[in-house]
Amino acid sequence: MITVMGATGRVGRQVVAALDGEEVRAVGRSAERLAAVGVVPCVGDAGDAAFLTEAFRGADAVFTMLPVDEHEPDHRGAQEAKAAAIATAVRAAGVPYVVALSSLGAELPTGTGFIEGLHAHERHLAGTGARVLALRPGWFLENAADALPVVEALGCVADSLDPDLALPMVATRDVAAAAARALCTRYRTGPVELLGPRDLTQTEVARVLGTALHRPDLPYVRLPDDEMVAALVGAGFSPDAAARHTGMTAALNSGRISAVRTAENTTPTGIEDLVGGWVA
């Protein structure tokens, strides 16, 4: 038995699909969406340790992640509480092996914005007695798809990342494939970075999107942090969550978060493999 948290989310649903043929419990907040996944549903809250304990009980391996809620007034506090609840459940259920969705930079305890919550996730799991593999992907390529409404509204790609900062960008399907492999084989522990096929700048991402949209001159605009926070709050983020985003991009811009590319952490799917599906 394998339990998958976030089973209807961007990564989790692909983990479930990659585990085809395995006995899987799918954890999520929506009974309707879980029913569409086609495996055993477990409906509840990721901050409820008692619920998670039952969802994890009897599992040979568990895929954990921190659900993102940008509306939380105290986003960092909410992430800490969920990380603690997940670890409590792993310990109480006697889970032997965990694959945790984390991020590049999760080894740093502070100064990384959103990623601080993933540091807490890894830290709490380390005290459970389970064998833990922490997947640390780079920037998700699918973040570019999320930018399409901004492109339509403003005629540009915009964020608080420096335009010429080359980041490792990885497809979520490659992250899911790595998670599924580990859940089935339990072959290793410790942190595992996933960096995509090559590093990309935001200017390059805008160029790829522009070509697909038949707008070859589509620009990338680097917003100052205060303007980025205001834009995110206008889009529904809490002020704390918006500040966590710019805290993360500041850590990336400064080079505080970085990775060394190797054959082992290079994954196959590039932005050109995905962009056609985003603009179809």
UniProtKB/TrEMBL annotation:
Pfam family, one: NAD_binding_10
Source organism superkingdom: Bacteria
Domain NAD(P)-binding: 6-183
Protein name in the entry: NAD(P)H-binding protein
Lineage: Bacteria, Bacillati, Actinomycetota, Actinomycetes, Pseudonocardiales
